[in-house]
Amino acid sequence: MTDKKLSKIAAPKGVPDYIPPQSAEFIHIRDMFAHQARLAGYEHIELPVFEETSLFARGVGESTDVVSKEMYTFADRGERSVTLRPEGTAGVMRAVIEHNLDRGQLPIKLNYYGPFFRYERPQAGRYRQLQQVGVEAIGVDDPALDAEVIALADRCFKSIGLTGYRLELTSLGDNTCRPQYREKLQEFLFDLPLDEETRKRAEINPLRVLDDKREEVRAMTADAPLMLDYLSDECRNHFETVTGLLDDLGVGYIINPRMVRGLDYYTKTCFEFVHDGLGAQSGIGGGGRYDGLMAQLGGQELSGIGFGLGVDRALLALQAEKKHVTDGSRVDVFGVAMGADAKRAMVRLLDSLRASGVRADMSYGDRGLKGAMKGADRAGARYALVLGDRELDNGVVAVKDLRNQEQTEVSLDKVIEFVTR
Ligand code: HAM
Predict the structure, then answer these.
(1) What residues of the chain score a pLDDT lower than 50?
(2) 88 Cβ closer than 6 Å to some ligand 1 atom
(3) Which Gene3D superfamilies did the record assign (predicted)?
(4) How many angstroms is it from 43 CA to the middle of ligand 1?
């Protein structure tokens, strides 16, 4: 033993803690999103937090920032290269193929949530451990399913009361029309006086150049050919059916033909939800269709569509809109017992309250009436149950309504009925 004081340890850079009372809001948002997914027939899938590295290299795409710069990759003690999952779609697809879920009823509709890991430069709303709720509907290429997935994401945000966001939408075509477009775009880009690095990007993934944030590159690419003008008839019909269905559903959207998603697997419908109150990290959710992913991972040629909603950013968006999804209370009732016998009775009373589904806590230690009542206030309780020797002798408890300070004596065996009324 040494009496030298040890230094404190902080969480890793860019990794948020969710502590009370904020943690209640966080859980509520996540659960509301998952609840909406269940209402649309999605079943939960619990996936490993780390996978074989090749899954993401092959699934997400080696040319993406996510794979080339941001993965937490390490060799385990058996010298296997593993990676903390940077996103959920590749893992879902791996599990679907591994467990032959694609041999049953299609589409397979799956929902997941949890932490994902990206070694990004931390800033407000951009974390190295981020939380998503996602869905994937796999096995059927039906524009009605695209509309369902997009409307579901919109419903998720609405369900927590968010209003200050917009939906951006485009189609990225498929392998019948995108290669021709890609050539056209490259022809256009190679004629521009681009710097070496941007030129290289134009060779590997020309679409990404359209997403360049620099003003001079934006100006140069203002007249670049756009995928939407080169869609095959099939892709165009697909996209028009999706937008028509969203119109029917009253889901508003903006067509953004320059949208570039950070992952390579997308084809046809692509979308992003953008919130204006968040500053630079404004994407609160996004997704799209992916025709080739399953085959790319060794499975059948089946298409899928899904989304990932950012729970951290949804929480920040709610704060920006000055809204709450919980009332901030920790319990419904708070027990205040004066004396050893009263405390003993209170412990039993709380136990039966909790068994009836009432959130209940009590004052511990010897705090005195005033301190204990403060505890009741701090817990956000609706009722304080005050029990002293006198009440105990009479078989009653003093129930104080903390909203209006009205006090009622209630017989001990009627307390549950009284507070759940
Ligand atoms: P994504 O656009 O990379 O898509 O991420 C989805 C959402 O996760 C983003 O819109 C954002 O809200 C949140 N997010 C991403 N990175 C961070 C970060 N560093 N800090 C905080 N929040 C972040 C995907 O991951 C796809 N797997 C979605 C998908 C499912 N596409 C088809 N199916």
Answers:
(1) none
(2) yes
(3) Anticodon-binding domain, Bira Bifunctional Protein, Domain 2
(4) 20
